[in-house]
């Protein structure tokens, strides 16, 4: 932390990003200017340090490219030519267009598109839901991330926080499964190092030898999309060698006999064949995991990014109950602890305002929805994008761009910058950044409730999302109380402060101290499921999910509020292995023989900061990691530019030859701005808009491509 003059004002805040660490901020303000954003040294997760992405967060607020005023398009679609207009004109334009669309096609011809550009209670994932439900628009299903894992987690153990990441310090065996923690959950790595110092073994299961894998005691290379088979194979060994905690299983689980029968179908030889992991390693992993307690599993989001991802997360989540790992402090598993926070999603989203029969369109299928490839009656005539950047982050990006080019589509984008998506807007609306707004931050990596208070005034005419929707509500003539409440009144209303987990925590106290731990036990003593106490219908860890027993389905919170509107695909009550769709050896593989995974960039947060020169220098240009044996026959050398392509699209990247990937596998990062790349495209031009088998999550790791030197 640098030193500042005595007239520095410190304001408490919290990181707005879709990142499990949700760091606590100290905003430093001098002469009403934000001069520094520091991590709070007292916060147990942040411990005074922010990540590389947020290093220049104060300057980010003053980036000269920021969108400061409403703008309208003055050139052809996608040309990026805009002219400043007033908020009154912007709102009036929206009203005229929407009134006309509603009169001709009905309100369902309007579709919102939003995700987690901001992670606050009133400006984040649920912002705008109440407004669009009141409007009667198409309901957008937001399943970019965790919806498959969350569904799987809830089916198996219920909406419980599970293992506290801080408790990892007390584990003796830690499996980091499908997560590049050093990039994506870096503040929790400290607890792993604490455990290691006490003799714990760290195992990373990842197809790529990542920074995290390099720090581990053991890196297990797995074929993408085969984690379900590995987890079932581990169960096979654990059951066959009688390493089961029978007492725990009997008292606190449901469906052991069924799970045993399923696991019997996955002997190590078969699992080795599917996963590419040697039989000896499967045996060793199973034995070590079952016999070294406390054993912890840090479930990464990447497990879900394949067709069988949902069942894979269910299978992984069954493991700690089979071995009794939950009995110990530091044992068990963690998907995300978000479920411990008593948030009133009913109030925030107002699902009661959705008219029966309103259609639901999944956001990952945006391209098909806009181009008409997905038959929709009425067709989408207006798209309202906020908190998201689908041209970069959604699959099948080429079809999204084709859709956005439609002359008859009225597109509004609320943004911080003119992103690759915003470029196609008819109207742009300016949004505030975190130091300029009030919110209670949602977190999915720790157990602290945090208030972010405004430190500086918004520049230009920027407004927080919550104010944007108040303005839109007034414009459309909605006078419901929801749209007349202040930010603070909404935040006070959005949590159940009488919930025992919030005992002693009040909004006023948060205003003073910034953050407080919720009452769910301290890290050194927390054993949430030592005696069962699962949040499932049976109260047990459900190896055979009662939610699926009668062909039912379950969904994660990201469809919150409208679960009963759509029947889901029936799933097997007991987790199974579902193979990748785009497989080596398939017919498609003759043309596209290489599988491409596209995890998170080190220096960007999804696409955010991808337009900052300092971050671009840290991240470097778009690269693709290729095994030398795949590069050689294609005359690709280290540093050559290559075109990566399949029938969906292409992009270019600089080749990095390395055996950090296996033969047949390549790795590139999502998050580079397509428009700043060599051909105006990035990895999602090649990914497919299909879903994982639970929660409608995306399948970004299931992507066969080919490459050639350019
Ligand atoms: N620096 C940085 N941090 C971030 C983000 C960011 O953009 N940048 N984004 C945030 C967000 S939104 C999220 S969801 C999290 C995600 O963070 P993570 O959970 O870490 O997810 P990914 O980065 O997608 O992938 C992690 C690892 O999974 C591997 N992987 C890919 N497919 C598979 C598979 O089928 N099985 C297994 N076992 N491994 C596989 C990849 O090689 C990669 O190393 O990160 C958050 N934190
Ligand atoms: N190939 C591939 N694709 C992926 C993934 C992958 O691993 N591989 N990961 C997926 C995952 S896990 C996720 S979470 C998604 C993330 O996808 P997005 O949520 O779309 O990612 P961001 O880049 O964070 O984009 C958010 C946009 O919101 C804007 N924004 C930020 N704050 C505000 C605000 O307060 N108001 C408004 N109106 N706008 C704001 C930002 O400027 C940014 O342009 O991407 C998914 N896409
Ligand atoms: S992006 Fe994540 S690690 Fe970085 S400051 Fe924000 S919460 Fe912390
Ligand atoms: Mo995500």
UniProtKB/TrEMBL annotation:
CDD domains: MopB_3. It comes from the Bacteria. This is Molybdopterin-dependent oxidoreductase. InterPro entries: Asp_de-COase-like_dom_sf, MoPterin_dinucl-bd_dom, Mopterin_OxRdtase, Mopterin_OxRdtase_4Fe-4S_dom, Prok_Mopterin_Oxidored. Residues 8-65 form the 4Fe-4S Mo/W bis-MGD-type domain. PANTHER family: OXIDOREDUCTASE YYAE-RELATED (PTHR43742:SF6), TRIMETHYLAMINE-N-OXIDE REDUCTASE (PTHR43742). Belongs to the prokaryotic molybdopterin-containing oxidoreductase family. Keywords: Iron, Iron-sulfur, Metal-binding. The keyword Metal-binding applies. The keyword Zinc does not apply. It comes from Azohydromonas lata.
